[in-house]
Amino acid sequence: EKGGYEHFMIKEIYEQPKAVRETMSGRLAKDDSHIIFDELKWTPEEVAGINKIAIVACGTAYHAGIVGKYYLENLARIPVEVDVASEFRYRSPLVDDKTLVIVISQSGETLDTLAGLKEAKRLGARTLAITNVVGSSIAREADHVIYTWAGPEIAVASTKAYTTQLVTLCMLSIYVAALRETLAAAKVKELIQGLRDLPAQAHEILEDVEPIKTFAQQYGFNEDVFFIGRALDYCVALEGSLKLKEISYIHAEAYAAGELKHGTLALIIEGVPVIALATQPDVYEKMLSNIKEVKARDAVVIGIAMKGDDHIRNYVDHAIYIPDAHKYLAPLLAVIPLQLLAYYAAITRGCDVDKPRNLAKSVTVE
Ligand code: M6R
Fold first, then answer.
1. Residue 350 buriedness (CB in 10 A; 0-12 / 13-18 / 19+)
2. 22-47 burial, b if ≥16 CB within 10 A, otherwise e?
């Protein structure tokens, strides 16, 4: 059932090109001019009635939600707030019939997310579920459902669910942007073409995992690892850090790179590995300054950058490249080396990758 792979997690990491292709299947117009969501069929009037979006999820799905905020705000120009479900449901959220509440859940069974969805409905919100499991509790409860079609995810550490959630959120944002007329046709086309490139680009990363494996073997016994990034790279940093913690038990923290000097920089000392994501062109120079900051404290810096960025080699100890992608889609690729890093670090340390201690695949208790 593991199809020749040693663990479900690595199998699912390698399934990402296919999973992402499935998520997009039938949803990209042939001429790349628009997104098709037969399951929504929203009208401009309906969308005009939404003045705010709240995204509610847990764990990795929450990290996808943060990327979703970025997409929806930038592309569709609607204010978005993102909450972890266990906070949302108890904080009297400002949600009403003009709010669209999007819940994201791979399993569709996470108790807090389901409760958040019920609370949103009680407050009169329209609800949309993004989930991977057909007929799950969350799918049944929501007004609208978009399935991610990632195929079953067995490993506790979520991988292909995250990338397919990101693709879904990107498509949803383009879809809503079209209804609100906030995105020029040329930009829509550019993004859809970028989406089409993703499966092959993800495949390309998976063809050469040696550098990241070597790195994981070399630093797998360190006690602390830091992940830094700005903008979308910060969202990916959060996910990379969660992955490392949950399966390799290495203490990891993700920081918005600009926040370092507000406290955390005190922890950066000689030899501490820092994974620095630098895929976002708009904040690239700022990111380089942050890399210099940690290098000046003798951290070991691994830069994750887009292919073609030779410049970064002057600042980091090791550079890991992802294919040159649309900046909004870079997170889908940048997360893959981080998933692999967590996997190989866990293997190096002899951890039970598919069943990490204290964790369950589906959290159906509070
Ligand atoms: O099934 P869900 O997407 O609702 O699950 C949410 C989290 O429990 C899940 O993403 C968890 O954080 C994973 N173990 C992360 O790898």
1. exposed
2. bbbeebbeeebebbebeebebeeeeb
The closest residue, in CA terms, to atom 7 on ligand 1 is 59
What's the complex ipTM? Answer: 0.99
User: Is the pTM higher than 0.90?
Assistant: yes
- The answer to whether 294 and 254 have CB atoms below 8 angstroms apart is no
Tell the residue nearest (CA) to atom 14 of ligand 1: 157
361 belongs to the catalytic site: yes
Any atom of ligand 1 within 6 Å of the Cβ of 241: no
pLDDT tens digits, one per residue of 16-64 = 999 999 999 999 999 999 999 999 999 999 999 999 999 999 999 999 9
Contact in structure between 285 and 262 (CB atoms under 8 Å): no
Does residue 159 line the site of ligand 1, with CB under 6 A? no
Q: Which residues pair with 237 in a beta bridge?
A: none
Per-residue model confidence as pLDDT tens digits over 315-365:
999 999 999 999 999 999 999 999 999 999 999 999 989 888 888 888 888
Complete edge-to-edge strand list for the sheet that includes strand 300-306: 251-256, 224-229, 273-278, 300-306, 318-322
Tokens of 39: 């399951």
CB 205 within 8 A of CB 322: yes
- In tens, the pLDDT along 153-204 reads 999 999 999 999 999 999 999 999 999 999 999 999 999 999 999 999 999 9
Q: Using alpha carbons only, how large is the chain's radius of gyration in Å?
A: 20
What's the token pair of residue 172? 């949803």
Q: How far is CA 151 from CA 15, 160, 165, 330, in A?
A: 9, 9, 12, 23
Which residues sit opposite 251 in a β-bridge? 224
Strand partners, 135: none
